[in-house]
Design goal:
Blueprint: E1 3-4, E2 7-8, E3 17-25, E4 31-42, E5 45-48, E6 54-55, E7 60-61, E8 67-71, E9 84-93, E10 112-116, E11 130-131, E12 143-149, E13 163-170, E14 187-191, E15 196-197, E16 205-208, E17 214-226, E18 235-240, H1 244-250, E19 261-263, E20 266-268, E21 277-281, E22 284-286, E23 290-297, E24 302-307, E25 311-313, E26 323-331, E27 334-339, E28 362-366, E29 370-373, E30 378-387, E31 391-405, E32 408-423, E33 428-435, H2 437-445, E34 449-460, E35 465-475
Parallel strand pairs: 11-17, 29-35
Antiparallel strand pairs: 1-15, 2-13, 3-4, 3-8, 4-5, 5-10, 6-7, 8-9, 9-10, 12-13, 12-16, 13-14, 14-18, 16-17, 17-18, 19-22, 20-21, 21-25, 23-24, 23-26, 26-27, 28-30, 30-33, 31-32, 31-34, 32-33, 34-35
């Protein structure tokens, strides 16, 4: 891949940079060639992209002896003092890489290591680059550098031969997930607003700059994730050297640990207000990872909670913001990332109501099932008030009568007397209840004994309570003194 929009540099500024070139026959009379970038990892080994060592059709590898590695040069069209050329004796391809030409998506584990026929003579223009520490992933927004040979204007289809450098920034790893986003544990995104890698620089290094630069990524095939290839602002993808699945292979392992693959994290928040909760699920992952759930206020990026718990209780710090959950799925091979869409804005909690002391309560009961009625129609009803509050309410005395309307009979409930009461707690009181005219007439018609229903409605201080019971009304004889004992 060539760099579009970069700046020319000397190889002394990137002494790890090499080219990997091959010329190989495709038929009895024709040949093809490839040009890729690479990095010196020690005097005898070059790191490049795995797809650089395959013949597109048929699907087979280019023989090691067809490769030439050029190191220590700043321009491929001239030969500088100290430039080195070497042949290749063996090629190691990552065991989990699958070569799929023109797949239209990134194929993970796109790395290969070439062993040179003779060790390179190391010096100011040829020096190895150290890999970034295992598990130390570059954060989104980190400034990084990319170097490579090539044409600044890809429309000419001709390399100008110069070595270029392009400043880039690490992007969101959730964008670099392969075909379905499930491979981001071993992939790394980067983009530059002023330029882009382009055809011909596959295998070149993405570098964390500094006094001791570190190799963090290897340029992949089908690298453009966002935007149009070879144009400023396109987001490209790299094999992530921080992932043990990648770096352990570079170090010599033929069975590096497999990083998590998967995705599909989700969260539910039934009532997004301060004090309520959201609960999340990790989704579907393989290779047995452990999970870290990080809850982030999307308004300012503040981490509100991070750990093994999939539940977050909306704190006051979340008020007014939307919340995203970023999931990390980690095992010995690396860390996969997934992120949920933001919630709706978190609303403030409802104001707390002042706690009211419990109201005193009282229970009223009827003493006896028989009520004596004097000749003037007044009855004495004895009630008791139990509990801590005054009993206040109303007495209603009713009877049921059969009436006839045409040929149809029906039951009618009729009130024959009412009274109100107020009784102090713990006291018993006699309440005077006067029968109305209909009640007195019915009592007389029934020879001084009448069955009725007494309803006691207590409405204070607690919510209204209604008690009903059957009573017998008994007319007193004239000689019976008022207030005498009744049955």
């Amino acid at each position: 891949m060539a760099i579009v929009g970069g700046a020319p540099i000397s190889v002394g500024q990137a002494p790890w940079q090499v080219t990997v070139e091959a010329v190989f026959p495709t038929s009895k009379s024709s040949f093809e060639s490839i040009l890729c970038g690479g990095s010196v990892i020690d005097a005898s080994h070059i790191l490049t992209a795995a797809h650089c060592v395959f013949i597109a059709a048929p699907d087979e590898r280019i023989p090691p002896g067809d490769f030439t590695v050029r190191a220590g040069t700043s321009n491929l069209k001239s030969h500088e003092a100290g430039e080195l050329q070497d042949t290749v004796t063996s090629v190691r391809v990552h065991p989990y890489y699958t070569y799929i030409p023109n797949s239209g998506h990134v194929n993970p584990d796109d790395v290969a290591v070439l062993e040179l026929a003779q060790p390179l003579a190391l010096g100011p223009a040829v020096a190895p680059i150290s890999p970034t520490p295992l598990g130390v992933y570059s954060a989104e927004g980190t400034a990084v550098d990319f170097t490579g040979f090539g044409e600044e204007n890809p429309s000419t289809k001709e390399l100008n031969g110069e070595l270029y450098s392009l400043g880039m920034n690490v992007g969101s790893s959730t964008q670099c997930g392969g075909e379905k986003g499930e491979d981001n544990a071993v992939l790394l995104c980067a983009r530059a607003p002023s330029g882009s890698p382009c055809d011909g620089d596959s295998g070149s290094a993405l570098i964390a700059p500094g006094s001791s630069p570190e190799l963090i990524g290897v340029m992949n095939d089908d690298a453009v994730i966002v935007g149009k290839g070879c144009t400023a602002g396109a987001s490209s993808t790299f094999a992530n050297v921080a992932a043990p699945e990648i770096q352990d292979f570079i170090d010599g392992s033929e069975e590096p640990p497999r990083a998590p693959r998967g995705g599909g994290a989700s969260c539910t928040a039934a009532n997004p207000i301060v004090g309520s909760s959201m609960t999340c699920q990790a989704g579907n992952w393989n290779n047995a990872p452990t999970y870290t759930y990080t809850f982030i206020a999307s308004s300012n990026g503040e981490v509100l909670q991070s750990g093994a718990s999939p539940e977050y209780k909306f704190s006051a710090a979340a008020e007014g913001s939307t919340i995203v959950m970023r999931l990390q799925a980690t095992n010995a091979g690396g860390t996969g990332i997934d992120q949920t869409p933001p919630t709706g804005p978190i609303m403030p909690a409802a104001p707390a109501e002042l706690e009211q002391p419990p109201a005193p309560s009282g229970h009223v009961s009827l003493a006896g099932a028989s009520i004596a009625v004097r000749s003037d129609g007044e009855a004495a009803v004895k009630l008791s008030c139990k509990g801590t509050g005054t009993c206040r309410g109303k007495l209603t005395l009713t009877i049921k009568r059969m009436t006839k309307k045409g040929k149809k009979k029906q039951t009618k409930t009729e009130t024959i007397g009412t009274a109100t009461f107020s009784i102090a707690p713990g006291r018993t009181a006699t309440i005077e209840l006067k029968l109305n005219r209909a009640g007195r007439a019915l009592l007389g018609a029934h020879h001084g004994r009448l069955s009725a229903t007494l309803s006691i409605l207590k409405s204070s201080p607690a919510p209204a309570q209604a008690h009903t019971g059957n009573v017998r009304l008994v007319r007193q004889q004239a000689a019976t003194a008022r207030g005498a004992k009744r049955r």
